[in-house]
What we know:
The structure is a homotetramer.
Chain A: H1 14-33, H2 45-83, H3 89-104, H4 106-114, H5 119-144, H6 156-180, H7 184-199, H8 203-212
Helix pairs in contact in A: 1-2, 1-3, 2-4, 3-5, 4-5, 5-6, 6-7
Amino acid sequence: MAKTNSVVGVPGNERINALNDGVFAIVITLLVLEIKVPDIPPDLVATELPHALREVAPKVLSHIISFLVLGIYWVGQHNMFMHIKRHNRVLLWLDILFLLCMASMPFPTGLVVQYGQEQISVVIYAGTLIITGLTLDAIWWYASHDHRLVDESMDPKLIAFVHRRVLLAPLIYLLAIGVSFISLLVAKLLFVVVALLYILPNPLDHYHHSKLHEQVTVWD
Amino acid sequence: MAKTNSVVGVPGNERINALNDGVFAIVITLLVLEIKVPDIPPDLVATELPHALREVAPKVLSHIISFLVLGIYWVGQHNMFMHIKRHNRVLLWLDILFLLCMASMPFPTGLVVQYGQEQISVVIYAGTLIITGLTLDAIWWYASHDHRLVDESMDPKLIAFVHRRVLLAPLIYLLAIGVSFISLLVAKLLFVVVALLYILPNPLDHYHHSKLHEQVTVWD
Amino acid sequence: MAKTNSVVGVPGNERINALNDGVFAIVITLLVLEIKVPDIPPDLVATELPHALREVAPKVLSHIISFLVLGIYWVGQHNMFMHIKRHNRVLLWLDILFLLCMASMPFPTGLVVQYGQEQISVVIYAGTLIITGLTLDAIWWYASHDHRLVDESMDPKLIAFVHRRVLLAPLIYLLAIGVSFISLLVAKLLFVVVALLYILPNPLDHYHHSKLHEQVTVWD
Amino acid sequence: MAKTNSVVGVPGNERINALNDGVFAIVITLLVLEIKVPDIPPDLVATELPHALREVAPKVLSHIISFLVLGIYWVGQHNMFMHIKRHNRVLLWLDILFLLCMASMPFPTGLVVQYGQEQISVVIYAGTLIITGLTLDAIWWYASHDHRLVDESMDPKLIAFVHRRVLLAPLIYLLAIGVSFISLLVAKLLFVVVALLYILPNPLDHYHHSKLHEQVTVWD
């Protein structure tokens, strides 16, 4: 391990992980806590409450979507850092940029839910997620390139597989920006497709798993 | 352990636990921080302050209840994860859903405290807690079924005991929804019963403890 | 260690500590973040900004006091848990009550800073801190009594020393409530005395240290 | 290690680190979450949304700057605590003061972005960062002086190097306060210079690295 000298290997990545988990925990919690109990004058409660609850519904939807998208990135970063064994200043800063993206995601999501009929909302949403995806891939590129912060023995095929899996989302979001000039509905359907692709176990993964199975820790 | 291959066993569950603790810490803290010092013009402080403090009281009550109910789930999840030794993508997602439930609990609690005279509040509250309980049980089912993520040696009786203990709450909440069509007061009393059942040490636990005592880590 | 059977000793107290640190981190951060940049119309900035900043000052003071008082309890709980080696359901619940007290402290502190001329504010402040102190002492009593959750070898003198140190604050706060009927100023001075007693290294500590020095981990 | 007796060495610095990470995670997250989706009446969305988004832009800039400045301090504190092996009550309190500075940073940053044309904003900003830097240096001074909380074997040159690196920022901020009496623009450019100095890898670091390389864990 010729590179160990320029890498701070002790005490490992606990603190980066703690930071990521902290930011994720705060973002998802505050998202949901923002949904407030409506204030209704006592004499109108019986008639107004069901109506007020129905008005809260779209906000709830927006928050659940943010929640799931953030979940996808947390799981992705979680899995990535199972392979990254060491860190240095550059990785810390790439990770801080990634957290900046994570923390800002509620804003574009809110735009799409509230003003989804405007193309600018769809473009800002897709743009934010493209930047987030590219930052996550930059972390992987920096860590795995030349086996800088991963094990020397890591299979190049696994390294490439992670790149493909991470970059799939930004690619589809780029496509969605193009499509948004023709149909906003199709663009928004593409957002749902991305989410399903990452949450559901998919056959592509299983194909790769079976090929990489014998030689490396399984990327589940 | 035939299943180890498809399970990411390293670095263990530290990060899931950190995430759960983070979300719990944030939810309980923000609950209480929301209680603000009332703003009173200087010349009215002497006469208005006691009155203003009395108005804060029901909010305080609502927050203490949320706090205790969240505490019950944190303790439950904490104890459950003492037995879950490994994790994979499915467990991560089940846990993220559980956190979504935890984070949304202040909303239905607030509904019951502010609009407890409306059946819809009671139904939403019980419904949220049923979903939360079922999600927690799904985590246990997924982890313990076929000893997927728990030790091979775990006693099936302990597995069943945890299921019963976790599912007791959703059952009573379901009963409370039925009862709410007849009496809202009785339904709300059932909520208190559930809380006491989980906070107080209870004889059922001790019976099971004594039977399981010799062979497994004690489920306290 | 005859008690190990009824105690969950693995994986130790990491998660309780994580929860405490999380709550403390959130409370102190939100306290300070609440201080907002004043909004001033562009043409009035030059004349109004210094004035607006001076108005923020008392809020800043209130927050620094909360910050330090919370710091005292965090350091206290931190030191206490260096001696507590195991936990069980009762300890979890006592700790959750302690966190409830920690999280509510900004409210009484705000009362004293904004409405310090009213006795009720001083009584609520002292009362909250008495309950917090008693809860912290209850944790220690439960853990150390009969060496339930501490090492068998722990010196009874150290156990008693911790009790005295923890209970000193509630005692002075009780005194402050009595004094508040005569002089609010003296009562508030007692609050400052308590803070200094716990932040500054004090000779009483050193006396005890030197006596306990050879046989136990030093309580610093 | 003659000093070990007066130092609590177990369980190490995990909890201080957890607290720092928690506060940092919360501050950076809340900064970004504060940027809210604008509320626009349905019939005006098409015309008003682009305008409303442009108005959000300066706030976004302010938050990204806070984010990066906080990132600098987190990385700095992170690296410093790789060398600090033990802690005691004094270190806990110095660290709590450092966290107080970290948590208050959004306020002066907001002042500079909103009221950057007023000297008082620039002075408060630079003043806060001078205090933050001095607090961080006080941590290092206390820990490394006489090798109190660092390894006996630590090279005095490394100790001095860390001091120089940490104190560089307060020095430039002091210069910026002086310059602010002549030109606010130059003062604000100095703020940018400091940020770049700490984020970019710089030749001075490399020079020191190469000299310290053989004998100590590399300060990356």
